[in-house]
Design goal:
Two copies of one chain form a homodimer.
Chain A (H helix, E strand, L loop, with lengths): L7 H19 L6 H8 L13 H21 L7 H18 L1 H8 L10 H22 L6 H24 L1 H4 L4 H22 L2
Helix pairs in contact in A: 1-2, 1-3, 3-4, 3-5, 3-6, 4-5, 4-6, 4-7, 6-7, 7-9
Chain lengths: ~200, ~200
């Protein structure tokens, strides 16, 4: 039996789902509380009971993407050997990006709402980065390294994975005359190169 | 004196500029020949004289982005030493991405129109990839390597640069608790890591 979307808790949830649909259908530019109300067939004022502004709703939509993403990364196959675990993390990252293109775009290709106003979003986004940091700390071994060192490695690896994910999503390889062999081996090769670069700096 | 946009050649040009404006203001989803006609204050049929479909106009908009991008890469500071030239290319790439965010997004974050119908777009896009391939051939030295090897290196480097460009554009670093030192040194460090990875595979 379909439930009415007008009860407070349900409306709060329904707004998030409707926002997802608006973004999927018309792009992030089209998201507004008015459009969400229209989609839910509730009064224009109704979404304001739960989200003071469009950005508060967007922040909650984004936060859930990070939450799902972190859950997916945390459930990867684990390995004792840190560099094998890094590869497993890379595969889990790319798998999520390819299977959840909208969520991925919302996390990493969407201008953020003012972060000071959305601490839950910052917390859940930072948690995903901390998954990578934890693996990198294991790669560096028992000697404690500076946070800035870990962050630089994280930036390199994240850049590479994020770029590859975007390229895999966009079908750009097929447009730029990349050989079929290279297309098939790109993911493996990129991970080999990350491994080579990390090995050269962790001694 | 403003020119009328109704003369054939000028209208063809004006459509490209208007398409840019539509995309900048409302996103790629809003691009249509009807919207372009409205912006130019010409009849709905007028753009069809030059662009049979919306995708033909989009292909020309994208092609010009690649043309400008290639010009920008070709005018980088040149170095005899191939790995120094690769770094110079990397800096030119990131500079373009940061100073031309819309053009960059159109090239690499936009679904392509059917490529078989737009050979000029494919040609100019492939040319930009060939700039990187040429530098990579010099890095591999006098021994001829397979195209698939060059393409794999190109995929690794392009992924890394594309990811870093997207991250720099999005201000994502400031949201994910990346230390200030790491933020300031990320570009240099990522290029060092590319260098380290390339050195390990070119012997």
């Amino acid at each position: 039996m379909p439930k009415t979307a007008k009860e407070p808790i349900e409306l709060k949830e329904a707004c998030v789902l409707a926002a997802h649909e608006v973004i999927a259908e018309h792009g992030i530019e089209a998201l507004s509380l008015r459009e969400v109300a229209r989609k839910l067939d509730v009064s224009h004022q109704a979404p304001y009971r739960h989200y003071p502004t469009r950005d508060h709703l967007l922040a909650e939509v984004m936060r859930r993407c990070f939450e799902n993403f972190a859950r997916s990364l945390d459930s990867r196959e684990r390995f004792d050997e840190p560099s094998a675990d890094l590869r497993s993390l890379g595969r889990a990252y790319l798998r999520f990006a390819v299977t959840h293109p909208l969520e991925y775009r919302l996390m990493f290709n969407t201008p953020w709402p003012e972060k000071a106003d959305h601490p839950a979003l910052v917390r859940d986004a930072t948690h995903t980065m901390n998954i990578l940091r934890t693996v990198l700390e294991r790669i560096h071994g028992p000697i404690k390294v500076k946070k800035s060192t870990i962050d630089l490695d994280a930036m390199f690896i994240w850049s590479t994975m994020h770029g590859l994910a975007s390229i895999l999503q966009s079908d750009a390889m097929s447009h730029l005359d990349i050989s079929k062999t290279a297309q098939g081996n790109a993911m493996q090769y990129v991970m080999d190169m990350i491994d080579a670069a990390m090995s050269s700096c962790v001694r």
